[in-house]
Amino acid sequence: MSNFTPNRRHVLAGIGATLAMPALISRSKAAELTLRLHHFLPAVSPMHKAFFEPWAKELSEASNGAIEVQIFPAMQLGGKPPQLADQAKTGIADIVWALPTYTPGRFLVAETMGLPFLNTTAEKTSVAVHKLMDEFGGNEFEGTKPLAFWSHAGGKMHMRDEPVRTAADLAGKKIRSPNAGMGELLVALGSDPVFFPVTDMVLGLSSGVIDGCCLPYEVVPAFKLQELTKFSSEAAPGARGLYANTNVLLMNQERYEGLSDDLRGVIDANSGIELSRRIGKTFDEFEEVGREVVKKQGNEIVEIPAEEIAKLAEAAKPVYANWEAKLNEAGHDGAAILARANALLDQGA
């Protein structure tokens, strides 16, 4: 995409040296392992071009050509985005990019960081998510091997006809909610939340089914949402973002365990918390790119003042209480998980 190209070199330079690489496998070989990577965004999306393609190349180079990653964007292997985690578990794909929020209530610990105001920068929040999952996630993704957890930058509200400047402006609006927690908050503020995957966003906005949507800027260019909305509202500087969904890169467990030691070593060296940090950092870069696209379109960017953010945060307190109860019912220590999530964010992870 023309809007992304001028920044792509900068993004790639930022991520290229971040992850430590293992020594190259000494023997020269043609690809002996082909991994199919499946995700839901189009091939023009920043994540596809600036992360998945370089990462696939790095795995190939680190294995001296033994690992080949074939990338299938836009659900080309079939199914819907909510089915991606199961596709990794059953082996339909070897690796998937999945959003726990697309299957509400199934991955409760991972979903926790999608609650309102549980995010700072994408990089810091991604590290916090990874640590939280290491400490409390247990077997939440049983049957798969999580390679990374990450978060996008704090979500914004993109509106068709009227901006959101205050909490009161949300009353009566139909807004695409990104997850259950934000949906509860929107209800408390008098909105009518609608939930569907980001891939259905264009139809929802163009048909008038929704008045607006909660999304980070980075998603905007891939779907040309800047042409379907006129206003984007963001939290005042220094405040936590409105929300941020947890993302996860999952590998089929049997596929991972069946690798030779050297190939498994390549995967291990190119996954884990440093990969989470790296992806989060790229999402911070993507956010700036998307924001510039919105500005170039001539849309108005609205800053929600601190006193209005405080009203939203106050309205979110029952959302946290309800989520703590859900975690407890599932056998977790809800209070400990929420306290740890906030502590990690306050510490900068």
UniProtKB/TrEMBL annotation:
Q: Which residues cross the membrane?
A: none
Does Transferase appear among the keywords? Answer: no
- Alphabetically ordered keywords of this record: Signal
The yes or no answer to whether the keyword Transport is present is no
Could you tell me the Gene Ontology terms of the biological process aspect for this record? transmembrane transport
CDD domains registered for this protein in UniProt = PBP2_TRAP_Dctp3_4
- What does UniProt give as the signal peptide span? none
Gene3D superfamilies, A to Z: Bacterial extracellular solute-binding protein, family 7
Q: What is this protein called?
A: TRAP transporter substrate-binding protein
Organism for this UniProt entry: Oricola thermophila
